[in-house]
Design goal:
heterotetramer, A alpha+beta (333), B alpha/beta (268), C alpha+beta (428), D alpha/beta (294), C: 428 residues, alpha+beta, three-stranded antiparallel sheet, globular, D: 294 residues, alpha/beta, Elongation Factor Tu (Ef-tu), domain 3, Rossmann fold, Dihydroorotate dehydrogenase B (pyrk subunit), domain 3, seven-stranded mixed sheet, six-stranded antiparallel sheet, 8 helices, 15 strands, binds flavin-adenine dinucleotide, binds iron/sulfur cluster
């Protein structure tokens, strides 16, 4: 079941999407980076964006959020946010990243906050063109097979739409008037566009056996070289769609009885990340932290990478440390 | 408003050494909660706000300002002696702030000559330093000035008997949490955020400006060389970068040595 | 018999200062305002700094008039490099200074001075019996801070005002909030005038005074390039060194300024006296009503002048916001600056009076010479004259009473001592 | 749909507090919600996340074996924000807990084996739960040897319990050995005079050196400050213990306890471990495979 939406009808389509939740999409205001924000006016929508600095994970695992209202006597009262939203224009890499996050946040001991918001969010993917930092074909995440409700592939003046879920199907039903059945010609176009797109990838990383390569390369000089110019500022973690460390803290109100428990994203590149009681630090130096981060990114578990090749960590590193370059150097000798 | 009996209230004092008095003022800027908050303490001294002052043992002393004269030093030692907890508030008390930016670069005599036209150190000035250089400090709240939320949370923590929570990560973290574009990357501006203690919620980058470092470098984790490298790459001359690194960190170990003048003698 | 009266440390003032009065028999022999705030040598440390961050350092001279320092600094740089700014920038700067005036005057009038009028050691103690007043005053102060926050980026030592304009223009919604807040606190501002007018000043002296203030142009404001003097003199700020003569004294880290060898006064009282015709609205009405209470010879009436300025600034902020909104706020990019070897002077009316920044740059745009004259430094000579006046008239009273009154005087001038120490004398 | 939120703490009442040393206290807790009590089971070596509302949360090992439903004991050293706040609490006050988390010790697997428990300082807390469990089901386990290293007598935790074992443990087929560091410690010195084969001055490794221990049919279980592991493991492997015969518990600054917050991730990419859910109990084999675990 493939549908087709004319670009001219996009605005009407968005109008229908609004019935399913508050639509958020990539926009770029003057002096800002691309970011997913509420789409107040479909004119500001920028579906052919490169990448947002902050990945869409921010909707599920919020950068900072209050988890509980707390009370000395009565304990903890959850703050649940069950607003419905529609994320329009998510790239395949970010969808795959959410699938990885789901394994952490839903599969075992489901995180109530994450799960609720995941269930309340409709994800509409959009095809993209790589730039010189994208290497998602290498991480096998350039195409999304699951984890979305609808996926729109751009061909000429229209989009071919794949349906990924029942909710997606409902949207399609609601927008009957706007969507046509994709013809065999359209499908041909779709395949051609995908093939074209694959050709545009210039950056490749060989991830074959990378786990053992990393494990065996603890002493490689590239770690120290990069640790020397690394700030340990955590930017790479904080823009990564699959990084998921967080920290929590309690704050008391003026009455000293009530307060809030908050959590915020954390980063394994920060020094205090590896501290334990008694002041011992399991990763006291930046070399150790850098090494750890690359390892963590190359393995979520024995069967999966923890990187979707979005290129953010390279683009948003103020010290210009190049993720792929480092891995290549480690792999080469 | 039920208050604890006065004998149970912690006795506190707010003192200031050499600085702009901005941190005391920041306490007064807690307009919404000021009266109620302060009523939970017994204020024994608060020079900027009150004529009332009592010279007794304190549970907590808050000290702003740097040690810049021998008079400051005497006063500081006296405060330390009579206080159970000593909390440094603001960059002056923590690092010495802007007045320390020329430490190990120019001598007091030169500065005297520049400003007052005489070389004699008639004000018994010392090379400005944070109070931790002279006495034991229990907690440090960074910032020029301190953030009022941080002051509030610190006071609440101390009231509750807990050590205050002070960020130990850089401003970049706050840029990312807020989704502010990185001004180094997007605009090539000489931002010090990567090495500066967070807590301001990335005020400067939020306005499209580069952080000048007013909250001071992160203790134990400041890669000044990396900053030098990153800004050199973007075309800034060394002199410019070093001046800038020194603005709020003239005493900071890794930064003090940058641009050090070999024959400067510091005080006296 | 020689008697020395000493107040070791003034309280409820900004910074560290004391007073020494030496009395010989029935005569006041000497008075000194001692300032032992540590010197911070701004003029020296700022050398070699590239112009772009000069205001960020220089504003840290003082917390309470931080925006005045930054604007004086910015204007000196703009004058040096011939940078023109847009009308929008000018309005926003005006608004910012009004915010500072509100914050500073509210703090001073209610928290620092009023307790003297009502007989309390501080506002907190005062709040136990006048809770509503203190609360309202805090609201007023907060409103001033809010302007700071929105326009400058922080209550103290903000960063948004830059050479050539603003880094980020506040959006219209935020400006509307400012307006709402101003309308809310207007009553409190007016209350400040009435409270002070209700009481005779706790001390009555009458000294001969010369006043100086900047010419704000068409409207009563705080930014200008011309110095007005109560003897009729008018000078461009570039000539400030020909008008104000400074000398160092060994008992103070601040310096004494004189005009034609006479003490002179800057600040709210000076501004009201020199620019009263430009007051508008209720500030104007209140001035008319209480005109008689404003006595040129009594520095304590500075408090009521401040209160009238409070009313004015609250009203003026509303007008400025309306003006911005009716023009529509525009995003403006900061201009490209062409640095060169140059000198520039900038002046602003800080809450306590005229503030001068004077920089000389090398061809790379780095500072080679810097001079700052703060309002408190200009006022010290007047403060000492008034000490003498007061001490002489009270010479037969007991010591505590004299001391109390001397403190009153210094507080009335609202001295900002951390500012004062950064006064710089140029070597000739 | 009411999914249980694993991050929400449950209320527990402090039913007793014992001061053990100048920095450690033993807290007896009882869950207050009768509905939860029935479901609340824990195994030796598991831990809780303990909250003081408004102060924060910290992971703490349960230090006893489960007997009464809904009851448990925590031995807590005050080192910082949360632990200090806990120390301020008294009988009748509330604590908020969630868990139990972690894998715990493989008590089933270790059945019919001898147990060698080696602890340093506060590390005795989780090992005490192993010991209690083994004593509770005494017939399921062989000889139990406890080696405990302390700085001095006054820093020794669960003193009475262990001194009793020291003197009378033979009846239970439990050998208790004590090592102390402080040479001026007269109390320990007296114990050493009493039974020099069971109490000696030095680090806990001294005890291993002095004892005749064989790896046959034995599991070693270690817990103590991180520096201790390396030395103890060396002693054990020299005596022929294989890496899977050695168990140890690890510590990290964990914030969630349920494998989310990422703080306890260790290892390189070919073996990634979460201390909270894969541990805190690991074999030495895990440690060998997993970089940085130890
Ligand atoms: C599985 C496990 C079991 C533990 N069992 C016990 C026990 O039975 N008894 C006991 O007294 N302690 C135990 N700890 C240690 C205890 O968790 C820490 O002492 C406690 O978290 C410190 O918290 P705090 O807020 O009091 O200290 P903080 O003020 O946070 O800091 C004090 C020191 O502790 C470190 N620290 C902070 N948070 C943690 C954390 N979550 N985990 C480890 N270190 C941290 C800090 O880096 C600092 O060095 C255990 C830790 C783990 C991981
Ligand atoms: S590691 Fe870098 S490239 Fe990989 S997903 Fe994270 S940010 Fe993207
Ligand atoms: S703008 Fe500055 S603080 Fe923010 S991310 Fe970039 S370097 Fe870090
Ligand atoms: S961004 Fe930097 S300079 Fe700006 S307020 Fe924060 S710490 Fe200070």
């Amino acid at each position: 079941m493939y549908k087709k939406l004319l670009k001219d009808d996009l605005e009407n389509f968005i109008f229908i999407l609004k019935k399913f939740g508050v639509v958020h999409a990539p926009v770029r205001e003057a002096g800002r980076v691309y970011e997913f924000t509420e789409l107040t006016d479909s004119k500001i929508l920028q579906l052919n964006y490169t990448r947002t600095m902050i990945p869409p994970k921010k909707f599920f695992l919020k950068p900072k959020e209050q988890l509980y209202i707390l009370n000395r006597r009565e304990g903890f009262k959850e703050i649940v946010d069950d607003s419905k939203i529609v994320l329009l224009g998510v790239h395949a890499c970010d969808i795959n990243a959410l699938n990885l996050l789901d394994r952490i946040y839903i599969d075992q001991f489901p995180d109530r906050y994450y799960k609720t918001r995941r269930e309340n969010t409709i994800i509409i993917g959009v095809s993209c063109k790589p730039d010189e930092y994208c290497f998602c074909t290498s991480t096998n995440s350039s195409y999304a097979l699951e984890g979305f409700d609808l996926f729109m592939h751009e061909i000429d003046d229209s989009y071919i739409i794949r349906i990924g879920s029942l909710k997606g199907f409902q949207i399609v039903c609601e927008s009957e008037n706007l969507l046509a059945e994709a013809s065999s010609n359209d499908i041909k176009e779709f395949k051609r566009a995908e093939a074209e797109r694959l050709k545009e990838f210039t950056l490749h990383l060989n991830v074959n056996g990378i786990q053992d390569i990393l494990d065996a390369s603890y002493d490689h000089p590239v770690w120290q070289e990069n640790a020397d110019i690394c700030f340990g500022c955590g930017s790479c973690n904080l823009v990564c769609p699959t990084c998921r460390c967080y920290d929590t803290a309690d704050f008391l109100n003026l009455d000293l009885k009530t307060g809030v428990r908050v959590r915020r994203w954390d980063s394994c590149m920060l020094k205090q990340h590896g501290l334990v009681a008694g002041g011992l630090n399991f990763r006291p130096t930046r070399v150790e932290r850098l090494y750890n981060r690359f390892n963590c990114k190359m393995s979520l578990s024995e069967d999966s990478l923890n990187c979707v090749g979005c290129g953010r960590c390279t683009v948003y590193c103020p010290a210009d440390i190049n993720f792929v370059e480092v891995l290549k150097q480690v792999g080469e000798d | 408003m039920k208050e604890p009996a006065s004998e149970n209230k912690p006795k506190i004092g707010v003192f200031s050494l050499t600085g702009c008095a901005g941190d005391q003022l920041m306490i007064l800027n807690l307009e919404d909660t000021l009266i109620e908050l302060l009523s939970k303490f017994e204020i024994k001294s608060f020079q900027e706000a009150s004529s009332y002052s009592e010279n007794i043992r304190l549970d907590i002393a808050f000290v702003e300002g740097s040690v810049s004269t021998e008079h400051d030093l005497e006063k500081l030692k006296e405060i330390r002696d009579k206080s159970s907890l000593l909390v440094a508030i603001g960059d002056c008390a923590v690092n010495g702030c802007v007045q320390a930016m020329r430490n190990s670069q120019t001598s007091i005599a030169e500065r005297m000559l520049d400003v007052y036209g005489v070389e004699d150190n008639i004000y018994r000035a010392l090379e400005p330093k944070g109070i931790g250089e002279y006495v034991r400090v229990d907690f440090e709240i960074p910032g020029c000035p301190v953030e009022k939320e941080e002051v509030f949370n610190t006071l609440i923590s101390l009231l509750n008997g807990d050590p205050p929570l002070i960020p130990d990560y850089p401003v970049c973290v706050e840029c990312k949490l807020n989704g502010y574009p990185c001004v180094i990357i997007e605009e090539g501006k000489p931002c010090l955020g990567p090495i500066i203690t967070a807590g301001c919620d990335a005020r400067c980058p939020s306005l499209g400006l580069d952080c000048v470092g007013c909250r001071g470098p992160i203790k134990g984790e400041t890669n000044a060389k990396a900053e030098l490298e990153a800004l050199r790459k973007r075309g800034y001359p060394d002199k410019y970068i070093i001046n800038r690194l020194r603005f709020f960190a003239g005493n900071f170990p890794d930064i003090r040595i940058l641009g050090e003048r070999k024959n400067s003698k510091g005080e006296k | 018999m020689v008697k020395t009266l000493k107040i070791d440390e003034l309280t409820r003032v900004e910074g560290h200062g004391g007073i020494t009065v030496i009395i010989e028999g029935e005569k006041v022999k000497d008075v000194k305002m001692n300032i032992f705030e540590g010197p911070r040598f701004f003029e020296s440390i700022i050398k070699t700094v590239y112009y772009d961050k000069v205001p960020d350092i220089m504003r840290r001279i003082c917390a309470i008039c931080t925006a005045s320092h930054s604007l004086a600094s910015i204007r000196a740089i703009e004058h040096a490099f011939h940078i023109q700014v847009s009308d929008q920038t000018q309005i926003l700067r005006d608004l910012l200074i009004h915010g500072e005036i509100i914050e500073s005057h509210a703090l001073h009038v209610f928290m620092l001075a009023l307790p003297d009028y009502l007989g309390y050691p501080d506002a907190l103690k005062m709040s136990s019996e006048h809770f509503e007043i203190v609360k309202a005053a805090l609201e007023l102060k907060k409103a001033g801070n809010m302007i700071h926050n929105i326009i400058s980026g922080r209550e103290i030592h903000g960063m948004n005002e830059r050479v050539g304009g603003f880094s980020k223009i506040p959006n219209e919604r935020k400006l509307e909030i400012i307006k709402e807040e101003m309308l809310n606190v207007k009553k409190t501002a007016e209350l400040s005038v009435e409270l002070l007018a209700r009481k005779e000043p706790p001390l009555n002296i009458n000294s001969k005074n010369i006043f100086m203030a900047l010419n704000p142009g068409g409207k009563y404001g705080f930014i200008g390039d011309e110095i007005l003097i109560s003897d009729g003199g008018k000078h461009h700020i570039n000539d400030y060194l020909n008008i104000i003569h400074e000398r160092t004294v060994n008992y103070s880290t601040a310096k004494i300024s004189l005009y034609k060898n006479q003490p002179f006064t800057v600040g709210a009282l000076a501004r009201i006296i020199l620019n009263k015709s430009k007051l508008e609205g209720s500030a104007k009405n209140m001035f008319k009503t209480y005109q008689a209470l404003i006595r040129e010879g009594n520095p304590l009436t500075n408090n009521i002048a401040q209160a009238i300025e409070l009313v004015h600034s609250v009203e003026r902020a509303v007008v400025l916001v309306d003006e911005l909104l009716s023009r529509g706020v525009r995003d403006e990019r900061l201009p490209v600056v062409n640095v060169k070897e140059a000198r520039g002077v900038g002046a602003v009316e800080a809450p306590r009076g005229i503030l001068y920044h004077d920089y000389t740059f090398d061809k790379y745009g780095c500072i080679v010479k810097c001079n700052v004259i703060t309002p408190t430094a200009q006022n010290i000579a007047s403060i000492e004259r008034d000490y003498r006046e007061a001490a002489s008239s009270l010479i037969n009273e007991d010591e505590d009473k004299i001391k109390f009154n001397l403190e009153l005087i210094s507080r009335a001038y609202d001295p900002c001592i951390s500012c004062a120490t950064h006064v710089i004398r140029l070597k000739n | 749909m009411t999914v249980k939120n694993p991050l929400t703490p449950m209320e527990a009442e402090i039913i007793r507090v014992e001061e053990m040393t100048s920095i450690e206290k033993l807290f007896y807790l009882k869950l207050t919600d009768p509905q939860i009590i029935g479901e609340f089971h824990y195994n030796p070596g598991q831990f809780l996340e303990v909250s003081v509302p408004g102060v924060g949360e910290a992971p703490i090992s349960i230090c006893d074996a489960q007997r009464e439903p809904g009851q448990l004991q925590l031995c807590i050293r005050k080192v910082g924000r949360v632990t200090n706040a806990i120390h301020r609490l008294k009988e009748g006050d509330r604590l908020w807990i969630r868990g139990p988390y972690g894998n715990g010790f493989p008590m089933k697997l270790m059945e019919n084996h001898n147990l060698l428990l080696i602890a340093g300082g506060l590390g005795i807390a989780p090992l005490r739960s192993v010991l209690q469990h083994a004593l509770l089901y005494r017939t399921n386990y062989g000889l139990i040897t406890v080696m405990y290293g302390v700085r001095c007598y006054s820093m020794m935790l669960f003193r009475e319990e262990f001194i009793r074992l020291f003197r009378e443990g033979d009846k239970l087929n439990v050998k208790f050995l004590l090592a102390y560091e402080d040479e001026s410690d007269t109390k320990c010195y007296q114990l050493a005079c009493e039974r020099s084969d069971r109490c000696m001055r030095g680090l806990v490794t001294r005890l291993i050196e002095a004892a005749t221990i064989t790896p046959d049919n034995t599991y070693a279980v270690i817990c103590g400050p991180p520096v201790m592991y390396k030395f103890v493991v060396r002693e054990l492997t020299q005596r022929g213990f294989t890496p899977t015969q050695i168990y140890m518990t690890m510590e990290r600054r964990m914030k969630c306890g349920v494998g989310k917050c990422g703080h306890c991730i260790t290892g390189s990419s070919n073996s990634i471990k979460y201390v909270c859910k894969d541990g805190p109990v690991f074999t030495y084999w895990d440690a060998l495979k997993t970089k940085g675990l130890m």
